[in-house]
Amino acid sequence: MTPDAKARFIAEVIYLMTGTIFVVIGFVALVVAAIRRRASGWRAVLWLGIWSALYGIQRINDCGFLVALLPHGMQVTIAYSHGFATYFVLVAGLSTFSELTVGRLRQVVGLLAGCALVFAVAGFGNFVLGGKEYALLRPNTIVAIIGLFILVIFFSIPRLNRQYGAVQNRGVLLAGSIVFGAEALLTNLVRPFGYRIDSIWDDAGFLALLLSLAYVAMRQVYASERRLISIENELAVARQLQFSILPTSTPEIRNLRIAAVYEPMAAVAGDFYEYLSVDNYRAGFLVADVSGHGVPAALIASMIKVAVQSASIHAADPSEFLRLLGETLSGQLRGQFVSAAYLWIDTQTRVARYSAAGHPPLFFWCAGCASLQRIESNGPLFGTPCDPDFPTREIAFTSGDRFLLYTDGLTEPEDAAGEAFSDHRIEQVLRDNYSRSAAELSLLLLNDVRAWPPAAAPQQDDITFLVIDVV
Questions:
Q1: Using CA atoms, how far apart are residues 280 and 253, in angstroms rounded to an integer?
Q2: Which tens digit of pLDDT belongs to each residue from 212-229?
Q3: pLDDT tens across 53-89, in order?
Q4: Fewer CB within 10 A of the terminal residue: the chain, N end or C end?
Q5: Which residues, in sequence order, are CB contacts of 323 under 8 Å at separation 6+?
Q6: Phi and psi at residue 338, in whole multiples of 5°?
Q7: How far apart are CA 445 and CA 440, in angstroms?
Q8: Residue 207 above 80 pLDDT?
Q9: Residues carrying CATH 1.20.1070, the chain
Q10: d(CA 424, CA 65)
Q11: Where in the chain is the domain with CATH 3.60.40.10?
Q12: Which residues contact 110 (CB under 8 A, 6 or more apart)?
């Protein structure tokens, strides 16, 4: 073997080794990005993995003796993979830096990545169709030089780094970027004049940058995960606190059997229910639904608990109860809305009174006439500027009758065809199961509404309902 052939062979072995290392690093980064995709920095890790893998493919494709060992068909594939990596490696690199910057700098880097993508698609397409691999490499190189120049300035000036950087540990990133930027900028500047710097320096510069980026990106991912864990722990505490403001037991009212279901969509909910028990014969039942979901809705739902205490002096008068409840909440809603339904039941007089504020109708099963009635007596939603007028309906009842109060989370779930569970489905369940107890019916209705959407579909709203049987 001649000295030149030996040197070439050694260089290609180095290509194979470094290329394999970069491909492995890229694969590991992609796996980490897939596992940690909940964290805020996972896109930077994803692009970093793609960048490293493409760079490694370039190096492996430069290993001539390995390519020569492959069948002719695979050699053609290697040529295409080399062309693809040559053009798209810059897109991945600029996209990685875009994820680590903010503001106008991110827009500039994103624009450069878009230009690189256009040249990459055009250049690779020209190679596939016309066989000219490097036809558009010069504009691709110009974009690379502009990007490197901007990023070297960005990482070299601390004020710009603090203003436009989205990461901590800027010193580590600065060191790796300076090494890579200086080498890459020099390489791209001298290439048009026919000079070529030994590829080992390319690999060393890229490895320095890769390690610094990996360190910074992973620190960002783990910091984000720690924040997520902290938030989840706080939400768990909030969930316990929210459940603590709900009734812990049903009131002991003669001739009534009561069952309650409360299924939050998320850790905390915007639904609320409460019992206002006066004595063994009379009690009020409130169901409320705050617009929106999550923590803001849950905070307002918690406020309803306090507001109920001030309105409870009018427990026997649904209209006045809702008026005072809305008045107490009016200064706290901050642009959100609350619907509510309130039912007062007196088992001595066998008369119920019902009123609502923008809420779905009350269902009343009349055992004597074997019919289901939708009782609507709505005033305006809490939080609207309308006059607080809440008309009251009186309902005479007897043994065997049934009341159902609920929030719209019971009617809105949709099946695979987009059909909502709806009031009509509730009516059907009530008609078909009028002989079941309140507890049995509540479980059956909950199972039906859970089974209505596709199995993989998440719950879309909080589900709350009260079943009240007269016995």
A1: 5
A2: 777 776 676 666 667 766
A3: 888 887 777 776 666 666 666 666 777 777 888 888 8
A4: N
A5: 388, 390
A6: -135, 130
A7: 9
A8: no
A9: 3-233
A10: 73
A11: 248-470
A12: 94, 98
Give the distance from CA 69 to its chain's centroid.
48
Strands 271-277 and 378-379: unpaired
Length in residues, the chain: 471
* Three-state secondary structure call for residue 342: strand
In CATH terms, the fold of domain 3-233 is Rhopdopsin 7-helix transmembrane proteins (1.20.1070)
Contact 276, 266 (CB under 8 A): no
- DSSP class of residue 136? T
Distance of CA 41 to the CA centre of its chain: 15
Q: Is 248-470 CATH 3.60.40.10?
A: yes
Structural tokens at position 241: 């606190």
Residue with token string 């209505």: 452
Q: What does the alpha-carbon distance between residue 430 and residue 333 come to, in Å, rounded to a whole number?
A: 35
What pLDDT sits at residue 345? Answer: 96
Q: Above pLDDT 90, what percent of the chain?
A: 23
**Residue 135 gets which letter from DSSP?**
T
Distance CA 454, CA 110 (A): 39
Backbone phi, psi, residue 343, to 5°:
-125, 125
Report the alpha-carbon distance of residue 451 to residue 456 in Å, rounded.
Answer: 11
Put residue 168 in one of left, alpha, beta given phi > 0 → left and psi -120 to 50 → alpha: beta
